[in-house]
Target: Acyl carrier protein phosphodiesterase
Amino acid sequence: MNYLAHAWSFLRNGSADPYELAGVAVPDWLGVASRRTKCRSRDAAPHLDSENAQLAALARGVCRHHADDAWFHESPAFGALSLGFAKTVREALGESTSMRPWFLGHILVEMLLDDELARREPGLLDWYYELMTHVDGAWVAASIERMAQRDVGDLALFVERYVEVRFLADYRDDDALVMRLNQVMQRVRLDKLPAAFTPLLAGFRGAVAASFDELVVDPDLVGKTPVALETGGSVSA
Model:
């Protein structure tokens, strides 16, 4: 899952704590700000019952991130879409570059799901970013550093930039989406996408829209207790 789909776990109920939203974004933020540092469910779980409500909310978000990723990446819809996108990219663009179609297929499903969610829920993206303006990036960085017991690099600065730039809104426009995809490709040292890639996006968007319901709700988590939802029934992630 990407940022907005992860946040939807909380936002779908009509209310959310900004620090739950921060927590559910933390593992992905670390992937940019400090790639060698991981904050796992087992790191956050001891803080779920903290007397500090802000810290407990942050921990709930981290645990929920891993619970959601666990079912999402094993779901038939995600598997079929990511594999199908990879095949389409390979057939259209060939295998002469280091684009890694399987990696591209994976992140395309996640990014396009965020866009489809924003399209179906008018005002959701603005509400999400408004809530995120209440997050203290320096406090989040210090708290996650204590949880993970590792340096978190430029996490505090990245949180501020994340809220300021609002790059999730770029996913609606094909050219802007390709620009954001190329930033990811550069970060993992893969080739930039050629111009021939952009026309493929219309079909990819339609495929994600058609599978939307299967991509946003894990039926196995329905009816579980709040702690089970936050941890996916486990703190081993």
Q: What stands out?
A: The chain has one domain: 3-219.
